Amino acid sequence: MIEVNELTKRYGGTTAVDGLSFTVRPGHVTGFLGPNGAGKSTTLRIVLGLNDPTGGSVTVDGRRFRDRPRGLRHVGALLDAHDVHGGRTARTHLYVLARSNRIPRRRADEVLEEVGLAGASRRRISGFSLGMKQRLGIAAALLGDPPVLLFDEPLNGLDPEGVTWLRGLLRRLAGEGRTVLVSSHLMSEMENTVDHLVVIGRGSLIAAESLAGFAARGTRPSVTVRTPDLTAFTELLTGEGARVLQQGPDTLTVTGLDADRIGELALRHRVLLHELTARNASLEEAFMELTADSVGHVAGADR
Amino acid sequence: MTDTAAAHTKANANANANACAGATAAGGQDAEPRARFRDLVAAEWTKWWSLRSSGWALAATALAVVGFNVGMAYDTYRYWSERDTASRADFVRDGIPLSIAFSTDAAMLLMLALSSIGATVIVGEYRTGLIRTTFAAVPARRSVLAAKVCVVAAVTTVFGAVVSVASFGLTQAVLSGRDAGVALDHPGALRLVVASALLAPVSALVGLALGAVLRHSAATMTANVVVLLLLPLIFSADRHWAAVIDHALPAGAWNRLTAVGHQPVAHPWTAGGAWTVYAVWAVAAAVVAVASVQRRDQ
């Protein structure tokens, strides 16, 4: 469990994190979302004790992470896949980390196997692709078999097979009762992976809730209707209080009435329907809508 | 070190947690072994030797320093016939074999190279970002730096000893071809060998400390040159106030410890004072390195 309380971090005049509070619970994959520059990485660094907060506090399983003499058995983290020395081999990198935390060497070999790097373990990291470095960072996070795992943009650079693998891994880790926090600036990456969301923008909390709850807060669900009887049906729907938008020669987008009710109306008034499709608001739309006010760098905004 | 106290607290916390909650669902934190400082030393040792550049840098420095000294001895050997009889007769008495055994230029080269090698141990981690991985794995940052101090001090002391003994042995072997070499029991010889050997760890620790404070390669290298090489040039030992500063520097201490016999100096000081300067620099550098990581953001 990660508890963030009234966290604030200022760098000179800039406020990177501003009074942020949220809780990440075990047993779920929690997505940590926000546009670029929202303060995600700063928050994760403070969780790991690398940066000190200007105000507020963070505890991991009830204690400040900095107060633990060794970290790998408590929190496994992948902050930046490039945070390695290219001159060492993958296995030496892990042996060093394992040794510092009194973890046996064979555990390093195990996690290399688990992330699919066993074949490249004797190669120097400087020759690794970004995807391989991500896998190595994930291996390092798994070394101590920790109850809490933090991943900052872990999908970057992974191929489609790697993305599928990582999603499976995250779900499995959460299924084992661990606390799993995964950051991303792309909602689409998170959609099929997380159960809970913590969304921030400009260092402040925008939402902390389940995926379904978040989707419901965004654009309202709509229904697509195709019918040759366009004009008459539009009148009928408007009469029932719906908002109707004509999308094509025979297509309508209806909000304010659900698909069941529209089908019922069509049957009762003998209107022929060619299509009746309920569309849920996309998470991407909900995300864009909710973070629109807090996007730090909008293309062309400064002109 | 500080680890022991932290480990006790940790052990108590674990005991409490177990008593209250029983076994925890996921993760092996109940089974966490006591944190040991020697594991950090072992990890830093592996870090050092797993980079090819570490070995190469030491080998190249050793070759350069020993080569410098032996080259000087060879020059003396070669142009021996050009010396007059009086100069040959006073050669050993004036202590010249000792000034050839480890020359001032070789000492400057040694300081420069070793301070860079010491600095790389920490600056390399900041340059690559590895430092964040390291400190996330070991939140006890001061213990990590203390482990680095131990490894740097140990490796460079052995290195210094090898280079200094090799320089002395080889130069005297060359000079003995003209019956002008001395043995290790010659007055001042052992002190010269030890002082030159210890110049290596003192320089490396200064580099490590400056690297830990400055974190950037170029800035650290510049600072190394200023502290170890430039300051001794600026504060030459003729005025009293300048001599005081000169004597407080590692280079000044090395000069005092390796000075041969009876050249008159304006402001004499004791060898014990010079050894103290070595010790103070080494300890102060270690303290600065360890303390520098505690409060700043990483």
UniProtKB/TrEMBL annotation, chain A:
The keyword Nucleotide-binding applies. PROSITE patterns: ABC_TRANSPORTER_1 (PS00211), ABC_TRANSPORTER_2 (PS50893). GO terms for molecular function: ATP binding; ATP hydrolysis activity. Residues 2-227 form the ABC transporter domain. Keywords: ATP-binding, Nucleotide-binding, Transport. InterPro entries: AAA+_ATPase (IPR003593), ABC_transporter-like_ATP-bd (IPR003439), ABC_transporter-like_CS (IPR017871), P-loop_NTPase (IPR027417). Pfam families: ABC_tran. SMART domains: AAA. Belongs to the ABC transporter superfamily. This is ABC transporter.
